Amino acid sequence: MCAAHRKSIRFDDIGKIEAPQICALPGVLDNISKDGCKVRFPFPIAVDLENEYELKVTPAQKAGENVHEPFTVLCIPRWVREVGGTTEIGFSILRSPEYNRVVSYIQSLAEEKNQFDERQASGSVWQFA
What we know:
The chain has 129 residues and is α+β, with helices and mostly antiparallel strands. It has one helix spanning 99-123, and strands spanning 11-18, 27-32, 36-41, 53-59, 71-83, 86-93.
């Protein structure tokens, strides 16, 4: 989906995705927001766009000072595309029992991004001619 049409900001992140209903092997989290995520599998797979799937997300990095434990969300695929022998799937996150953990993780990613942006801005040098 085009970034201009999204309801919330997506954060580039990486993590392991376990989705046994889709594939026995894990996928990789590409980006995430409070409303959805993009997942990549390293080979072609078939996905039913009408089904809901449970995804177990294991973040690879800590966000800010917080180390986040894996969380499970209920999702529905919105689009699927094959790119160079891999499969990318865009999911919408449905309300799930662990949704508050998703929101907490997204907030940590947003705070980390803001701190990075502030450090970049304070370290920049302006030159006037």
